[in-house]
Structure formats: C-alpha cells, structure tokens
Amino acid sequence: NPKTEVLFSNVALRTFAFDFLFAPSSAQETQTLKDLIYQLRFHAAPELSGVGGLLWTPPSEFDISFYHNGEENMNIHRHTSCVLTELNVNYTPNGNFSTFSEGRPTQINVSMTFKELTILTKELIADGL
Predict the structure, then answer these.
(1) Does pTM top 0.85 for this prediction?
(2) Which of 66, 85, 63 is nearest to 77 (CA)?
(3) What's the confidence (pLDDT) of residue 12?
(4) Which of 54, 59, 21 is nearest to 41 (CA)?
(5) How many other C-beta atoms are found inside a 10 Å radius of the C-beta of residue 22?
(6) With 121 labelled, which of 28, 45, 54, 109 sits at a CA distance of 20 to 30 A?
(7) What pLDDT shows up at residue 78?
(8) Helices and strands counted in the chain (H then E)
(9) Considering only CA atoms, which of 59, 57, 21, 54 is closest in space to residue 42?
(10) What residues contact 85, with CB distance under 8 A and at least 6 apart?
(11) pLDDT one-digit tens code per residue, 18-59
(12) Burial 74-89 (b: 16+ CB within 10 A, else e)
C-alpha cells in the first residue's frame, strides 16, 4: 500500500512577460518609442536616497490592465501590482541591423518581464483577480 506525501513549503511570486515588435514609420513614432523605452528603464531602476545615497528606494510599481473598446477586458486574467524585473531592447529583431536614411531603426523589439508583488490566493481569485 504505497503512500505519497507532499510537503508544502511556499508559493513563488508569479512572473509574466510581454514581447512587442515596433516598426516606427515616422520620426514622431520613433521619438515616442524612445520616450517609452526611457520611461520603462527609469521606472525599472531603484533609486539611491538617504544621507550620502546609502539607501535604496525600490523600483516603481506597475498596475497592468488590458482594455478593449475603452473598457477593461475581463476576458483576460488580471495581475496584482508588479515590478519590471527585466527589460530588453533589440534593434535587430529580424537578424539584420537596418535604419532609415537619417539613422532611425526600422524595427525595435521590446521584451519585458514583470514580477507580481502579491502571492495569488484563492481569495484574490474569488474577488475577480
């Protein structure tokens, strides 16, 4: 009569990734994308604070929601608050570096990995998360 026992130790924080391929067709779209990448890099980094910069302030928190026709899309599962743990910007997503005549990249791939700050529980799921 074999018996199997499982010892529960913990639940890890969930991580999830987004991968976007951008192909800016104008200088304005390229600038908007540069601004977006800057903001993501800025808010993913910790901050030195305190006297002499000896303390770290944690990175910014993100609250991610999915929308459809101006309303939150409840057909896609929701996330708790999270932090951006990895940001990769690839200027050669198709394997070849190519730019427009003024030097703007023709394609940019942005990959992001987020980690939630709250362990998902049955209660949170029952509340619609």
Answers:
(1) no
(2) 66
(3) 86
(4) 59
(5) 18
(6) 45
(7) 84
(8) 2, 7
(9) 59
(10) 15, 44, 113, 114, 115
(11) 999 999 999 999 999 999 999 999 999 998 887 776 888 889
(12) eeeebbbebbbeebeb
Give the count of beta carbons closer than 10 Å to the beta carbon of residue 30.
19
Mean pLDDT for the chain overall:
89
Burial grade of 108 (CB within 10 A; 0-12, 13-18, 19 or more): buried
Higher pLDDT, 117 or 7: 117
Residue 107 has pLDDT above 90, yes or no: yes
What are the residue ranges of helices labelled H in the chain? 27-44, 122-126
Q: Where are the beta strands (DSSP E) in 5-129?
A: 15-22, 47-49, 55-57, 67-68, 71-72, 82-90, 108-116
